[in-house]
Design brief:
Layout (H helix, E strand, L loop, with lengths): L7 H23 L3 H4 L10 H20 L18 H21 L2 H4 L2 E6 L4 E6 H25 L19
Antiparallel strand pairs: 1-2
Length: about 170
């Protein structure tokens, strides 16, 4: 992958998409009873709430690496319970999305250049990858888990919103 494919403008677009989709997911999940959100549904992170919590956790992990945020105290295995309270999860999601948007808006090509090195507990070893690839992974990871959320919420009878990038409201013309 060429690092030039992941630009500050692309990251800003993905941050806007992320924020739009997270709002829709939180709105759909918020219309559900807490027990339904926390019901085991056979997904990797168990429930709708667990998947939303893992997604928030992972965003904090990646932003700690990419922008110096405080990393979560919980590890990967605990990520589904990173934020157990619904109101707190909703609030932290909004704050996190705003911070990711501000990061993306301030990005320069130099900020995406070079390598990012870290110890990956998931891989069990030191990693070193292009920063641009790490940014692309963060946004791809978000989309992957929101697809799972969409499927779980649809199966549960929740009203879900469109998820196609081309339908993002600020991209659609008259």
């Amino acid at each position: 992958m060429q690092e030039t494919l992941v630009t500050p403008l692309w990251c800003e677009l993905m941050a806007r998409y992320n924020r739009w989709q997270n709002r829709a997911a939180i709105e759909a999940a918020g219309a559900m009873e807490d027990a339904a959100r926390k019901l085991e549904r056979g997904a990797f992170w168990g429930s709708i709430h667990g998947t939303l919590s893992h997604l928030l956790w992972a965003d904090h992990v990646w932003m700690a690496r990419l922008d110096g945020w405080e990393p979560p105290k919980a590890g990967l295995a605990e990520s589904a319970g990173f934020v157990p309270d619904w109101a707190e999860l909703r609030s932290k999601r909004q704050i996190t999305d705003a911070r990711i948007s501000r990061w993306a808006q301030a990005l320069t090509p130099d900020a995406l250049a070079g390598q990012l090195s870290w110890y990956s507990a998931a891989a069990g070893r030191e990693m070193s990858l292009p920063k641009a690839l790490c940014a692309a992974h963060m946004f791809n990871h978000q989309t992957h888990h929101r697809g799972q959320l969409h499927a779980m919420m649809t199966a549960a009878g929740a009203a879900t919103a469109p998820s196609d990038l081309f339908l993002m409201p600020d991209l659609v013309g008259p």
